[in-house]
Amino acid sequence: MSWFFWILLAVFCWGIAPLAAKLGLAKSAPLSALLIRSIIVFFILLGWGACTGHLSQLKSIEPRTWLLLAGEGILGAIIGQWAYYNALKAGPLTAVIPLSATYPLMGLLLAVLLLGEKLSWGQVTGSFLIVAGIYLVYTS
Description:
Strand content: under 5%
Oligomer: single chain
Structural class: mainly alpha
């Protein structure tokens, strides 16, 4: 399947998931919700990995890769998700979702500063539009 199919599936799932999270957070604390989500995801991934043979491949992955992926998991799946759940619980979905969707701007900035990647004029223009969008959403 093409990358376009996969990005459409991701957008579809990421579009629906915040609605379920917002409703689920109505009667649970953000950390409790994160625990429930993570436990269920862990067991699904464990089964998926076992069924596809990817679980046995983990032992061949080098330690540096484990550390990098662990750091990403701690930042993205624990701290970031917990902060996002706190924002969802306290704020309106119509503001939280667009503002949380600006995280690629941080990735773009870090790619330039830390990895030495170059930006095109289109990326610079798009970044300014993201910042303008943040302003419009936040001040509405």
